[in-house]
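Dissemination and training. As part of the outreach component of the grant, students in the summer workshop were shown how a complex can be specified as a set of sequence lines and then modelled as a single object. The example used during the hands-on session is reproduced here so that future cohorts can follow it. Participants entered these lines:
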Amino acid sequence: MSASVLFDAPGPKARRRSRIASVIVLLAVLAGLAWIVITLAQPRESGGITLPGYFDWSRWEKPVTDPEFWGAVGRGLLNTLQAAALGSIIALAIGMLFVLLRTSSLAVVRIPATLVLEFFRGMPVLLLMLFILLVGSTGAFWAVVIGLGLYNGAIIGEALRAGVVSLPRGQREAGLSLGLTPLQTRLRIEFPQAFRQMLPIIVAQLVVLLKDTSLGYIVGYPELIRTTMNNLASFYGNRYLLTLFFVTLAIYLAVNLSLSWLARRLARRRSSRAGGPAALVTDGAATGAAVLVAGIGGAGLIRNPEDATTE
Amino acid sequence: MNVVIDNLPSYLEGFGQTLSLLVIAGLAALVVGTVVAVMRISPVPSLSGFAAVYTELLRNTPLTLVLFFCAIILPYLGSELPYFWCAVIGLTAYTSPFVAEALRSGVNGVPVGQAEAARSLGLGFGQTVGVVILPQAFRMVIPPLINVMIALTKNTSVAGAFFVAELFGVGRTLANANGNAVVAVLLAVATFYLLITIPLGILAGRLEKRFAVQR
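and obtained this result:
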């Protein structure tokens, strides 16, 4: 299994040592977990009331058995997904627009577009959302959606531009010599190729976008975190805060891990299909190139598209 | 515009808070990230497994939720840390997996011959990684690491919503207090952020070009 050059295949002695280390790590992790569990299980006093330990069923019963609760969580999740979906569409559209403007042959168009793009890339999304919320008075939903769209559009635009730049020049020349206008060449010849090449990065950025919808919590959009940690926490009482936190965490992990997994599969498919230009995001093991630590870690993935995204 | 000039001291205070969040959390994330990266490539399966779980778990949790945990749930469980340090812990925890992943891809960028040479000289895993591989990997991942730091700069704004009076927090308060000059107030905040992110971005681009020529 181990294709690593960093160490030999372990012999009996090293295996024993490694096993001992594993046991120690496992014990340390277990001790940490046990400490957390014991701390949580202690009855606590707050404001004169003694709350039962955290693992007491009464700390979970009320929300978990209430269909209303799951209904509200579902609505929160739906709001999150809705904002993410609309934000993605806007981000893709703005990304393409940015590429068109930035690669324009007119300096009058190109230079302002570059400036605007740098501006959006250098700003925190949260500030962008607040700006739209207060200045545009659009309401929280559109503040989240437009903020995410602009910011991620700028980043996707950069990725797409890198894709366009990396195409062989002959592609554009061939398009022009067939009598297509420069715009047509861009849209019908270069974009489809650049888009496909950069797909893993774009999908990874869309996962980031989904994660960033959680900023809606701050600008007052009732997405998942706001629903659970704010609305439901005040409805059921603060004693359920931790329960609500774990529910929220589990939902986010489930959604994001499955999307990340999809992004990785896309990356791997691309790298196995086209060895050449897609090397930017290949899994080192798949191309057969010698790498230092191939085959380590469950996924065995060396380069993964998420590295290429900011955040 | 007058609002901005009148409130310049609170802007500068917020800017100072943002900078200290950036520097402290950035350095801590570098240290934690390096440890996690070394664990991830280490020969002991439990260490690499632990590192993998840590990376995946934190990378797929939204920052808002991480900071929520640090700023609201920890005090609820009885911690008495000031909010600034809660934010530092949250930002460090969130940023370290990105550092670790950047480093890991840097390790893979080091030519295999380097590791083979080190191993054939009789260096062990710790020596190979510490003396030969990591110093080269660090050099190569400086541009990506700067990008991680740019992202961290932008992420410190989320701490502003969790009771830390950094730039975003200052901006929000000022915007609420001066309803007639919201645009100026927020543009000033944006300028301060751009003061950090754009020079860092230019630096990353420069270094990338330089290293690209070298290799």
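The mean pLDDT of chain B is 88. Students were then asked to discuss how this feature might be tested experimentally.
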